[in-house]
Every structure is written in structure tokens, then in C-alpha cells.
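Journal club side-thread
Mid-discussion, someone asked how the predicted structure for our own chain would compare to the paper's figures. Pasting it here so we can look after the session.
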Amino acid sequence: MVKPLPATILSGFFGAGKTTLLRHILHDNHGEKIAVIENEFGESPIDNRILGEGATRITTLSNGCICCSSANELQNALLDLLAGIDDGKLAFTRLVIECTGMADPGPVIQTFFSHPSLSERFLLDGVITLVDAVHADRQLTDFTVAQAQVGFADRILLTKTDIAADYDGLLARLHAINARAPVLTVLNGQIALESLFNIDGFILNDRLDLVKPRFRPLVAPQTRIKSLVVTLSTPLALAAVSDLMENLLATYADNLLRYKGILAIENEPRRLLFQGVQRLYSADWDRDWRMDEDRTSEMVFIGIDLPEQEIRAGFAALE
């Protein structure tokens, strides 16, 4: 079986530094052959000229945002890349998709799971979201899509920190939106690629490193997207957990951007891992609980206008 090609999505609002980062990625001495799909907001694509010759191939989508243009545009571009490999015309080891500043990463993510060939031949590695430390607070307030870009992220890269007067409040806001993505600072696109690649953002695993900030914004009513962390100390009935998740997805699937957890199940020595992106949901058994660890369930939900009380009450009722 052919090893799937890892794919990374670069997201972030206009001016956050996506193209600068991509240029760094393409010209770094990493030994990878990288194909690029970029999406430009306008009729005259210019980023491919800025990026230079570092990419194996650059496919430009310029009919507006990926998320709101033809539903098949990105899918067709991905299938075209695979056809190039199969015909011997292309050879690359990794794909990077640079989204336009107004793109919602959700439909881009869904594309990788909506076609059998794409889900088999590509492995979605993660969503990297760049955030402009100077302008992001206003952008997050004015544009829900900017919040969504942060909410979907597996890594958040904070740019322009060298000219931002104070961004502690912004860090708190980012942590409140997405409690599971580490925030890293990057200047002029310079960052170790180990922080961007092989992060297994969509692999079912037990990496649930939650950010627990020491500070919180006093008032952030404009933030519609936020994180919710649920911790339970009593093993749960598997059927009851399944019913609760099915009910949540039936009602709030479009609100739930990303969710992930490690569950302790009654009369079961193994840990149950689960994760999902909106309506896509998967679960599997992990290793046995160790004797020296607490059998505690921990879950994080990231979404739009999350029904916090309903989610907390639903899981509390399972204990």
C-alpha cells in the first residue's frame, strides 16, 4: 500500500504572514519535495511569483475563498496532483495548502475526508493558523471567520510580536478560543519545521495537552468561538457516552469545530480515545490504564456559541 502523503493547511487572516511562512518552508533545507495549493482573493494571482522555485508544483485557486467557491474546486486540484503522481509527471513528499485570509478551514478539512481517493492517498497532518499580534484583537472581534481559523488550529503562530506593544490579553483570548493548540511566536516566517510538520493533528491519539493559561480576559463578549474542557473522575457507561455524543452531534454538529478526549469506561481496562471535526467523529480503544494513573476522563470541545451548560450537565449526569 502506498504511504499517504502528509498535508498541512496554512490558515490565518489577511496580513498575518502566511506567504512569508510558506516561502520559508519552501526554501528551508529540509529535503522535502513540497507541492503547494494556494488560494488568492482576487483575479490576478501573484503569490506563486513571490514564492519562487521552491515548490514542486504550485496550483493556484483564484475564484474567491476555497470554502465558498465551487465545492469541487479544491477536490479537483487534489485529484489532479494525484493523477500527476500516478502518471509519473509529479513527485512530491508533502502538500501545503495556503488559504486566503477569509477562508473558513472547516470545508477545507472536510474535503480530505469526503472523497475515498483523497482520504486514502493524503494524510491530513494539521492546521497551522497564523495570528497577527498587532491587529488580531480587532479582527477577532469583527470577523467570526478569524475566530474559526483559531478554533480549528493544531498550532497557532503569533506573528509581529516584535512590533506589538502588549499582547498578553490576545494570548488569553487565543487560549480561551482554543485550549488545545500551543501558541508559538514566529518572526519573519522563521521557525523550526519540527513545529509545523508531523504533528498528527488528525490522528487518533492521546495527545491532549490542554493550555491552562494563568490569565483570562475580563470581558470578551465578542468571542463566539471558545473552548470548553470537561473533566470527570468516575468511569462512564459506554452506551450512555455514545448516546450523549450522538445527541450533541445531532443538534450542534455545525457548532462543534474540533473536539477530542480520553475516556475512562466502566468495566474496561483500556482508555477510549475519541476526536471529531464537526460531523466527522471517530473513537478507538487505546492502551490499558496504568496502575499509577487516575482513571479520569478529560475532553475538550471547541465551537461556536457552545451550549456549555448543556454539555457539562450531560456529562455530569453520566457520573
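Post-session note: The radius of gyration is 20 Å.
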